[in-house]
Model the fold of this input.
Amino acid sequence: MRIVIDMQGAQTDSRFRGIGRYTLSLVQALVRNQAQHDIVLVLNGRFEHTLEPIRQAFRDILRPEKIRVWTAPGPVGLHAPHNQGRHELAILLRESFMASLSPDIVMITSFFEGYVDDAVTSVRHHDVNTPICVIAYDFIPLLNPVQYLDPHPDYADYYKNKVRQFRTADHFLAISESSRLETVNHLSVPPLRTSNIGAACEPFFKPMTVPASEQQALLNKWGVTQKFMLYTGGADERKNLPRLVQAIASLPVDIQQSHQLLFAGKLSDTQQSELKSIANAHGLVEQALLFTGFVSDMELVMAYNLCQLFIFPSWHEGFGLPPLEAMACGAPTIAANTSSLPEVIGWPDALFDPLDVHAMAQKIHQSLTDSVFRAQLVANAQVQARKFSWDASARQAIQAIESAVQRPITDQIPAQPPIGTLAETPPSLLRAAVQVLQKHRMLSDHDVDSLAACMAQNEQQLGLPMPTEMTPPN
Done:
């Protein structure tokens, strides 16, 4: 079975977030566990600066010929209406390119891409014969429209259209049971077409002894002068950071004076100012909140190992990787009792209601002052973290993909009518597409000229030999 994997989840700005880490780690594990199968990675050439880093990430486990690059005239981001014609053309070029690789199934690592950049994802706009499986991370905008869609009507239209396309895929690889149930319950997808493959964290997230000199240098860099509690992640509304600050402000004065709250990772100046204003309004001193800015992986590992407590108050996560990373490092970890987080934490006593500031503060206080409870948190972290591995997720994904290939392609109607079919020769189909798009003034003469160069590059990529042996490179 040939599995062709769309790697754009590791190419767009998602590469700086959990989706990018998930994409690279899962696909590397898929390659390690491919057995008799044949895996081909497909990259979007419009993200040229990402091509070599991805090649390097697979250098020791995948032959260079198994990584192919397609391209299209750009820009194609759908935030700009005048990009629509090029976007339609890019969909055709991408699907044609992938179909030419003779896949038994196409796997899309991140479907909700392409609004602000040159990513292109689709489900059978033109190639109606190849099964498609997609990774289901979460549907946070869909389930929380007031916060994420209503203020941005153009993006809302884009997102809702992508949801309609997404639900026509043949199989859904969910990153948690929570995400799988969201796919079934909110997208009306039959349970048979869904699988929970889980997630994991990298092996370098582990307990370590930080040398005193390195420890002090790091704490000085961040301005840490007391014991510290830790949060890492984003700062959008679902992350619930204002309530976390309020919970810290409601702790007894002696706890406030002996502990600081460290936000690890890049938060904007505006986000930092908002949290500082909340802290000030609730009586916290200026040094109660600290912000590291960008942290390297090794600095994050050290922060997990040095913190007194890791707190994750988010009220909606597809998986929730930071708590797992913290537990893998042996940190006492507490989190919200919603969405996927109970799966990750694995112990009800370590959870709190994220919308109840008092309940959050009580759990933080218990974690910092009750030595028995704290020891239980550490013990839970050690046991729970071992339950997750990328190899296990990859094996579950391969099993799900094998089953999906054996089922008939879903009979759901494609998201929009195709301009022809891939049963035609690519040149004739492209000519037809160009004529339609030009007729509707959706392509310029420059776009048509660029198309010829892109087609030549794509044909050169498709002309590379495709090795059949399954052994990794020497």
